[in-house]
Amino acid sequence: MTRAEGGIKPWDWRFYAEKVRQSKYDFDEAALKPYLSLDNMTKAVMSVSNKLFGLTYKLRPDIVSYHPDVQTYEVRETVDGVDKLVAIFMHDNYSRQYVLYIVLLQAVCVIYCT
Looking at residue 67, what DSSP letter applies? Predict the structure, then answer.
């Protein structure tokens, strides 16, 4: 696309960025994607937080969340040999309408209901 035709539009950005990566850096994003699956990235983030902060995660399918796709975890920490619950983590990787409102409501309930 030339400047005479109006230049690159915002929706063209990913296409042309991939073309530049392939030509300039010999980098193919499609070859990298299998290593960056959601499951692999979730495991990596939890592993890093374990190494940095000593946190462990336990999947809790029995805890009902605001959407069926959301996975709920207990976040635990061991201090001086005592294992304790430090948080409940609702792992949601999808944009949803009204989720911020729901999460804020849950936070208020945790603060005032306990």
Answer: S
CB 71 within 8 A of CB 57: no
- State whether residue 92 is helix, strand or coil: coil
- C-alpha to C-alpha distances, 11 to 1, 49, 52, 80, 95, nearest whole angstrom: 13, 35, 38, 53, 19
List, in sequence order, the alpha helices (H) in 35-97.
38-53
CA atoms within 13 A on the CB side of 34: 2
**CB-side neighbour CA atoms (13 Å) of 59:** 5
pLDDT mean for each 10 residues of the chain (114 residues): 66 85 80 86 92 94 87 90 89 72 52 48
CB count in 10 Å sphere of residue 57: 20
pLDDT at residue number 29: 75
Q: Which of 51, 50, 63, 53 shows the shortest CA–CA distance to 89?
A: 63
